[in-house]
Amino acid sequence: MSFQFRSYIEPAAVMVTIPLAMIGIVWGHVLMGIEVSMPSIMGAASLASTVLVLLVVPAIFCVFNDFGWVSVEKGQD
User: Fold this and answer.
1) What is the pLDDT of residue 77?
2) pTM of the predicted model as reported, rounded to 2 decimal places
3) Which pairs with CB-CB distance under 8 Å and at least 24 residues apart come from 23-32?
4) DSSP classification of residue 53
5) Residue 44 and residue 18: Cα distance in Å, rounded?
6) Which of 18, 19, 64, 66 is placed for a possible disulfide with 70 were both Cys, Cβ 3.0 to 4.6 Å?
7) Alpha carbon distance 72, 27 (integer Å)
8) From residue 68, how far is each of 34, 47, 53, 75 by CA, in Å?
9) What is the residue extent of each domain of the chain?
């Protein structure tokens, strides 16, 4: 991914969804009192490609932009 993004910090922003999804899955299973199964692991993959990608990754890129670690240009045509 670093070759595609031409950076090391931008792939880290994308890959941060993986541990966040796992945290959500573990706490969800603990609170509901169910065991981790194959369907729940498949749900983990879905949770990492959709909700987190749409909400968390853009927020992380905004934070990285505030720190000056990435350059996010606005209003590209």
Assistant:
1) 47
2) 0.66
3) none
4) H
5) 9
6) 64
7) 34
8) 43, 29, 21, 18
9) 17-66
Are 48 and 18 in contact by the 8 Å Cβ rule? The answer is yes
The DSSP secondary-structure symbol of 37 reads: -
Which residue type does 57 have?
Answer: V
Residue 34, CA atoms < 13 Å, CB-side half-sphere: 10
**70 Cβ partners below 8 Å, 6+ apart?**
7, 9, 10, 13, 61, 64
Q: Is 33 left (phi over 0), alpha (psi -120 to 50) or beta?
A: left
- Residue count (the chain): 77
- Nearest C-alpha neighbor of 48 from the set 72, 23, 12, 11: 23
Q: What is the mean pLDDT of each run of 10 residues along the chain (77 residues)?
A: 80 84 87 90 79 85 87 62
Q: What angle separates helix 17-32 from helix 51-67, to the nearest 10 degrees?
A: 130
